[in-house]
Q: What sequence folds into this?
């Protein structure tokens, strides 16, 4: 039997329809500002899709593009301006930032109430009802819960320990009462650990890392990897961490790349922006 292929587009559309419904009850369109530093082509593509989706939904979306040479102080001053702007509800600083900029300092400068990326320490450490949860892990959790509503006691394995995905993913799964193991670059036998996983989330960016014989039969496998692999004829393909053709034979459910986690990340960003706008408006009235 082959695994169910989890349709990220379908789940993202359901979430976006809900967000559109919430927008109907707001007196003015929430504003999202995306700050993009430098000229990394992948970051430009991601930011364009975020802003395009925001505008399609009826949010106000603006991009602040800064040169690679921008100083940390100049970037902090752009963030301070956005923090103070009444018409901006959500701020996202696209990562990665150039090496001369201290990413943690920048994340800490974003007003936690506008931190729709959920990367400010206050949001990253608290996943309560009012906090803004990082978009990719939130999207992954929604996909997992579309397959199993109760994660109590499940063994969840997260491969990767980044601040954007791995760490918040593990924290969210723990809050869902799963037993969580996190593996990373120094883990001795990731393959052995993965074989015990009821839920496996891979967020590494190494195409084909997760092989069929790493998978427990009927496990739910979520592939966050999006490596760009050049085609001989030009252009590139997006490839996940999961050796899809092998894993689909063993798992119970698996996300494809593309059209798996990616659309959910953008949909969760829209949901977080509307959540931030509603919370701000409730505080002001
Ligand atoms: N770069 C890649 N993914 C993300 C993300 O989810 N948020 C931010 N800010 N930058 C990213």
A:
């Amino acid at each position: 039997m082959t695994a169910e292929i989890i349709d990220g587009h379908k789940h993202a559309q359901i979430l976006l329809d809900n967000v559109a419904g919430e927008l109907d009850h707001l007196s003015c369109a929430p504003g999202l500002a995306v700050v993009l530093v430098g000229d990394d082509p992948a970051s430009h593509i991601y930011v364009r899709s975020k802003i395009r989706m925001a505008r399609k939904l009826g949010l106000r979306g603006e991009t602040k593009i800064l040169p690679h040479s921008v100083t940390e102080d100049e970037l902090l001053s752009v963030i301070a301006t956005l923090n103070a702007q009444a018409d901006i509800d959500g701020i996202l600083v696209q990562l990665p930032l150039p090496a001369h900029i201290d990413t943690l300092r920048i994340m800490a400068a974003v007003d936690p109430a506008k931190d729709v990326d959920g990367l400010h320490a206050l949001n990253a450490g608290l996943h309560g009802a009012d906090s803004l949860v990082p978009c990719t892990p939130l999207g992954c959790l929604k996909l997992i819960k579309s397959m199993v509503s109760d994660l109590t006691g499940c063994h969840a394995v997260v491969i990767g320990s980044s601040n954007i995905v791995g760490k918040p993913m593990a924290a969210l799964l723990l809050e869902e009462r799963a037993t969580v193991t996190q593996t990373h670059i120094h883990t001795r036998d990731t393959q052995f650990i993965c074989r015990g996983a009821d839920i496996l989330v891979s967020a590494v960016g190494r195409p084909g890392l997760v092989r069929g014989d790493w998978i427990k039969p009927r496990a739910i496998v979520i592939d966050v990897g999006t490596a760009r692999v050049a085609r001989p004829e030009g252009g590139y393909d997006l490839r996940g961490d999961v050796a899809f053709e092998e894993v689909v034979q063993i798992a119970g459910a698996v996300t494809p790349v593309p059209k798996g986690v990616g659309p959910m990340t953008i949909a969760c960003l829209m949901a977080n922006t509307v959540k931030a706008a509603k919370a701000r408006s409730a505080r002001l009235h």
Remarks:
- Residues 92-95, 117, 135-136, 164, 265 surround guanine (CB under 6 Å).
- The mean pLDDT is 95.
- The radius of gyration is 19 Å.
